[in-house]
Amino acid sequence: MLALEFQAPHTLGLVDAPQPEAEDGDVIVDVVLAGICGTDLKITRGEHRLYPAGTVRVPGHEFVGRVREGRADGVGPATGTLVAVAPNISCGHCTSCRRGRANLCLDYESVGLTIDGAFAESVRIPARAVEQGNLIPVPDGLDPAVAVLMEPLAAVYRGLTAIGLVRGESLVILGAGPIGLIAVILARQLGAGSIIVSQTSAGRRQLAADFGATVTIDPRAENLVDRVWEETAEVGADCVLVATPVAELYPESLRLAAVGGRINFFAGLPGGRGEVPIDANLVHYNELFVTGSTANTTDDCEAALAILAADPEVYLPLISHRFALEDSLEAFRVSAAGVALKAVVEP
Ligand SMILES: [Zn+2]
Ligand SMILES: [Zn+2]
Description:
The chain is of the alpha/beta class. Helix content is 30%, strand content 24%. The chain has 13 helices and 17 strands. It has helices at residues 38-44, 95-98, 127-131, 144-147, 150-162, 178-189, 202-211, 224-231, 249-256, 280-285, 298-310, 312-315, 328-336, and strands at residues 2-8, 11-16, 27-35, 62-67, 82-85, 88-89, 109-110, 122-125, 135-137, 170-174, 194-198, 215-217, 237-242, 257-265, 289-292, 321-324, 343-346. Strands 3, 4, 5, 8, 9, 16 and 17 form a seven-stranded mixed beta sheet that branches. Helix 6 (178-189) links the parallel strand 10 (170-174) and strand 11. The longest helix has 13 residues, at 150-162. The protein starts with a strand and ends with a strand. The structure holds zinc ion (2 copies). One zinc ion (ZN) binds at residues 37, 39, 61-62, 151-152. Residues 90-91, 94, 96-97, 105-107 line the site of one zinc ion.
């Protein structure tokens, strides 16, 4: 079968790979659509910790596909079911798993990260994932091009849940990449009172406005802190989501928040470059609540798929480019160049 392999930093190759084989309760999913994510670009650059030097693997963790053959014991979806796949496979028994934080599992597998993923005609889903409910049936009639957004939306849903955005509150989103824009849509659906987006690119600011941002700011043209305070009646923002890996924005985010404000460090900085100077007194005197969120659980994915199914039309415009698997190198090029908002590959 055709597959797109990561072979070395900055080297992806289309190869004729062996068909994956199901053993002991595994299920083969024939890929319908797979989305390219910032994580895939990080993998491509050789910067992902789960792709250490020497790794040759098929990436792709955001995908929808069809179950080629359901399990004989009836566990998991039946043959032919269209499924969105929750990629993170937890062990189910470590302390993180027992405490309901399966995304922080100490012994996890992840489709497209630790095992071959979805930039291929077919992908093997391990038995453990089938048993843990990672194959989530796509609701009837939901466009696969919307369902493919389940995984990134699940991550954003986890981030906004961590800061507990409440109806009517103000939210600042730093960065209007795919994640920032998904956050704009979700925040609007959650009833945010104002959604203030900071982004340097004019095109992305326009998209943020189109998706429902109430205020957009070019932080190079005006003072971000001053403007956010002005837009929040001089009290600061109730919630702040750091959705772009720019080191200066982490300390800055604390200055945007109101007293008692909640901040989520959604984006991660490149390995070894995570130390940033924080004004601890802002956290102390203003009782700021600083959180992080990473990846997502299968529960988050189920919630995200339900959100997508409830109002698919608002999410569909996020899919900006579609490519055949044969053209997936080009799909990666337009994604890396920032031309594509979200490119999908269709085997
Ligand atoms: Zn992703
Ligand atoms: Zn675990």
